[in-house]
Amino acid sequence: MLKELSERKKRILHALVDLYISTGLPVSSADIQSKYLPEVSSATIRAELSALEALGYIEQPHTSAGRVPLKDAYKFYVDSIDGSNASNMLTDQETAFIRDNFFGRLGQIEDLSKEAAKIISDVTNYTSFVVDQSQGENVVIDEIKLIPLKRGKAVVLIVTDKGMIADKAIDVKEDVKSEYIDAAGRLLNKVFAGKTIEDIKHFDVSEIDAEIKGFKDIFDEVLGILRMYISEHSSDNVFVEGALKMLDYPEYQNIDDAKQFLSVISDKDAVSEIILDDDNSIEFTVRIGKEDSGVDKCAIITAAYKVGDEVQGKAGVIGPERMDYKKVISVLDYVKKMFSSVLGRDKLPDPFDDEE
Amino acid sequence: MLKELSERKKRILHALVDLYISTGLPVSSADIQSKYLPEVSSATIRAELSALEALGYIEQPHTSAGRVPLKDAYKFYVDSIDGSNASNMLTDQETAFIRDNFFGRLGQIEDLSKEAAKIISDVTNYTSFVVDQSQGENVVIDEIKLIPLKRGKAVVLIVTDKGMIADKAIDVKEDVKSEYIDAAGRLLNKVFAGKTIEDIKHFDVSEIDAEIKGFKDIFDEVLGILRMYISEHSSDNVFVEGALKMLDYPEYQNIDDAKQFLSVISDKDAVSEIILDDDNSIEFTVRIGKEDSGVDKCAIITAAYKVGDEVQGKAGVIGPERMDYKKVISVLDYVKKMFSSVLGRDKLPDPFDDEE
DNA sequence: TTTAGCACTCTAACCCTTTGACTGCTAACA
DNA sequence: TGTTAGCAGTCAAAGGGTTAGAGTGCTAAA
To answer: From the Cβ of A65, is strand C under 7 Å away?
Structure first.
């Protein structure tokens, strides 16, 4: 199906997508001729367009209209940029903006993900998302801290190799001694430290039943917190920004489409399903017009960010099919580097101060 | 301005608002006559409508159209229900739904607020909000805990009389001794314990400059966390549900209005500003067509929920002016009771089990 | 193979007319 | 004096016809 096109056909197809991306209007042979191929006549281009239409790359909304790209045309277009030097599409201001915002935020992976989503949306003007997968099932519990407060409360801190995953206040009996809490803490560490989330899932309480007798209440609370984390965490690590920006594009001037889009995008489970269902090993994914997801008429560009060889999460953009792919890919590429840099303390191309 | 209307004018005005609420279309004299006042002719009603128009209650979109209610008409309409027995508007299913959902959730005030917002939106089919004010500026800091972790990190816990307000990981130098952390903790408590959030706002660092010398880094981090809390917390306790439901109403079929509405409603600061700027002492507020807030064309109904005499927060609905006021007021009234009941452990009209 | 020229097609915009839903007014009536 | 029936007047919305113009496909010549 993807038969090799002649060089001129390629140029024409590329020009057509380019024009359509910037205007959103059907592209005529004259447009292409005047702005991209002045050396041939519009009649020639018309003939080529006819051929491209027969090949299924483009179509006419009606007989006397220009051509509009179809999925294959976008795919062709995306392929033609992916290989090239994407990141120099960004202006110096833009890279500076991204970098400054990225390093302005220290700290938690959550803040970082959220910030990244905001940055991507700000720079591209499309809806963006970040799914953080770093806190997955192979997070190892380093330590559990039990800190007694006043009034019969205590705080449980669960510290992992990737940071903190939970901090909840629980009730303990008002009159409990601090030695008791300490003992409970030691027991909890004995039981949980070194285990992964995956381990906890299949955890069998009866095995250690005898030991925990005296600390049943506290033990159950902690187990409850861990279980909660396992069941709820999947939606906690999805960050969507700029959902309303989609309404600026003519594709979404129809209120029903807009509503459909917004309701999908504000459902974090749905978002994470859409994002995560493609192959983890591919660094860039571009999907155009995904019908079954509830966000048809959309293109989704995803980049996996890694530390070393391990995928830590995905960041991406969701926008109209007619999207500024070059820019989006450039931005995602740069953000990807930022992520690797911050998370893995790699060297960055630009000099900056960040001590470990 | 609120001159007393004749009984017939009242009936006609009430009928007109009723009809307009259910259809959303301008109401003609014949509509009112056939469905509400068959004993007089449409001509008579026309004469009355003319009078009501002169009084500023209603208007015609254009000469040959029916009448549409203006703000005063809605106010009149709302007044006419507020006094009556509002809560029997709800079906048994509805009260059961509210009650079950309310008590199904135990626990944190945040979960409760969020759940309440969801319930209100589900039952009324409008956008709802809950603002929790129980964690205001007179929260007293009980204690600050500094807990050292591995790898040069430490956790700061700020405990208040109302619960925990912050728990952030901070960096400390890798080689710092635990005595140092303890000392820093003692200093922090000396400085902050017993103070309110309000106090912190006007806190003058220079006063205690000498003492904190050795702990400057940690001290600054904690102060940063507190400042962050002060500046950001106002948006943490605003819960909005069902924002997209507004798009179902014909008033918001225009994409620009919809966008305007959504952008206001998804900005929590803006929401809390809109909600909180009216008098705290009034238990029910109905505002119709608030121009300056960015959500004109909307009516906002707010109920303050209390424990004892103290306002704990506000819950409400934001919807088209043409809103089912009776139902909304009934729902809010019932939710109000639920809140008082759960938070204050009052007695409820219905029997249910809730042990202290 | 490319090009210029031309006839053809189809949408979008515009204007004009018609329709029908209301009202306001008036004259008659209780 | 208040109410009503009847009727003329008004206006928005819908329908229909025309025009303008943007673009194409085709053809014949270069």
So the answer is: yes
Which residue in chain B has the smallest CA separation from A157?
B155
SS3 A239: strand
**Nearest nucleotide by C1' from B28 CA?**
C22
pLDDT at A221 over 50: yes
Q: What confidence tens digit (pLDDT) does each residue in B115-144 have?
A: 999 999 999 999 999 998 876 666 788 888
Residues of A in contact with B244 (CB under 8 A): 259, 262-263, 266
Going by pLDDT thresholds of 50, 70 and 90, the confidence category of residue B252 is confident
Give chain B residues 35-94 with Cβ within 7 A of strand C: 42-43, 46, 49-50, 53, 60, 63-67
Where are the extended beta strands (E) located within chain B? Answer: 58-59, 68-69, 127-132, 141-148, 153-160, 163-171, 238-241, 284-288, 298-307, 310-320
Phi first, then psi: give them for residue B290, nearest 5 degrees: -85, 105
By C1' distance from the Cα of B47, the closest nucleotide is: C24
Mutate to test the interface with B, among A112, A140, A146, A147 (most CBs of B within 10 A): A147
The count of C-alpha atoms lying within 13 angstroms of the C-alpha of B122, restricted to the half-sphere facing its C-beta, is 14
Predicted confidence (pLDDT) per residue in A278-312, tens digit: 666 667 788 887 666 667 788 999 998 888 888 88
Tell me whether residues B147 and A147 touch, CB distance under 8 A: yes
Q: Is the CB of A38 under 7 A from strand C?
A: no
Gap from A217 CA to chain B (nearest CA, Å): 17
Ranges B107-121, B179-193, B272-286: which has the least confidence:
B272-286
pLDDT band at B239 (very low <50, low <70, confident <90, very high): very high
B302 three-class SS: strand
Chain A 26-65 residues whose Cβ is under 7 Å from strand D? 26, 28-31, 42-43, 46, 49-50, 53, 60, 63-65
Has residue B84 got a pLDDT over 60?
no
B59 pLDDT band, cuts 50/70/90, is: very high
Taking the CA of residue B280 and the C1' sugar atom of nucleotide D19, their distance in angstroms comes to 64
Mean pLDDT of A105-121: 79
Kindly write down the DSSP assignment for every residue of B54-70, as one continuous string. HTTSEE-SSTTS-BEE-
DSSP class of A287: E
Asked whether residue B278 carries a pLDDT value surpassing 70, the answer given is no
Tokens of B82: 């507020």
> Are B101 and B352 in contact, with CB atoms under 8 Å apart?
no
Alpha-carbon distances of B172 from A105, A107, A342, B147, B176, rounded to whole Å? 17, 13, 18, 11, 7
Q: Between chains, do A258 and B247 touch, taking CB under 8 Å as contact?
A: yes
Contacts of A159 in chain B (CB under 8 A): 149-150
Query: Is the C-beta atom of B253 closer than 7 angstroms to strand D?
Result: no
Identify which of B198, B298, B179 has the alpha carbon closest to the alpha carbon of residue B249: B298
Q: What is the pLDDT of residue B25?
A: 92
Distance in angstroms (rounded) separating the CA atoms of residues A118 and A316: 11
Residue A19 scores a pLDDT above 90: yes
* Contacts with B145 from chain A: Cβ below 8 Å: 147, 149, 155
Give the per-residue pLDDT at B27.
97
H-helix or E-strand containing A170?
Answer: strand A163-171
Residue A241 makes CB contacts below 8 A (sequence gap 6+) with A114, A117, A118, A120, A121, A127, A128, A129
Q: Which of B142, B157, B247 sits opposite A259 (nearest CB)?
A: B247
